[in-house]
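Hey Z.,

So I finally got round to the glutamic acid thing we talked about over coffee. Here's the setup:
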Amino acid sequence: MRDRSRDPEVIMPQLSNAIRALKASSTVAFNAKALELKRAGVDVIPMTAGEPDFQPPAHVIAAAHEAIDRGMTKYTASEGTRELREAIVAKHARENGLSYAVEQVVVSTGGKQSLFNAFMAILDPGDEVVIPAPYWVSYPAQVQIAGGVTVPVACRAEDGFVPDPAAIEAAITPRTKAIVLTSPSNPTGAVVPEAVLKAIADVAEKHDLWLITDELYEHLIYEGTFTPVAQWYPERTILVHGASKGYALTGWRIGWACAPIAVAKAMNTLQGQVTSNANAIAQYATQVALNEVDATAAFQAMTRAAYRERRDVLVAGLNDLGLPTPMPHGAFYAMTDVRSIDPDETAAATMLLERARVAVVPGTDFLAPGFVRLSYACSIERVRTALERIAEVVR
Ligand code: GLU
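And the result:
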């Protein structure tokens, strides 16, 4: 019989309904496309994935070597080593004034898995999750896998993409189970003011909802301060954090969740059946990153200053080119209105890629029609070159 295993038309219909209904992550897909072009020798500037261009700090790299040399290469507890979970507890106490027990912490393979564990732990089929939009592409996808339904609440560019607590409350129905908050925000870079976060936490409490707070960009704030949401409603807040962004450890895949004990246990039960523990070597390196407070803070201050300079150049440059771009106060993303290039943001992104060789992510899957997301986690020279090339297209 002829082997038709390479023929997608033959195999696709045999896949599950759930997987056929799932869209690929556009942040991952557009980044892969940019890297593919780069490999093919095209001088493309990838402003797609949010990935620090810095190497991790030297003390963290040394810790990874040490972990290998000391044979810390075996399975760990599924929820993560006690030492790393203690370091996470200490971090949240020291930096955020939060008081967690070690049993409330589950370490996972990236913040993405922590979020997935959380949705799987709390959602039943048909449950609704209210998410301010523009939102990160993987929230609705993960909600969908868990059988839930995303209810987006639009935030306006004119408001700097800060969510409106009244609009969030208006979106709540008897089926609502959770609200997701992300500050600083991926994809908008918005840093939500403390009063707004408090008002949304109050809405969650009033309606007896879960609050999932994605805090991956805590250390990347240029104006304003970070607000730990879990301080107000700890009994129903699931805090998600990780080493990827603030510690420049993307490929090392360490994320964590701090949650009420029953939720933490449920997330760990799921993870124990799916992936077991996160990478043991990266767990030790993250422990050192969290515990060597001064060296890590110095690294974070250095990277923050660099991102801030790039942001200033990029956002001013885009606005000068007639591409309206609200000033993002955190993370390393800018959301740019590209309707003057093409009303369809995917067409505009394609034009930027083909004509300017600048790779961006169209706003479509962020629920940001007319916008594209640019990551400025690349060198200032690349940011300047990107602006020069975009200028040629705009002209
Ligand atoms: N979180 C990053 C981004 O939004 C990395 C890609 C991903 O995991 O989606 O670009």
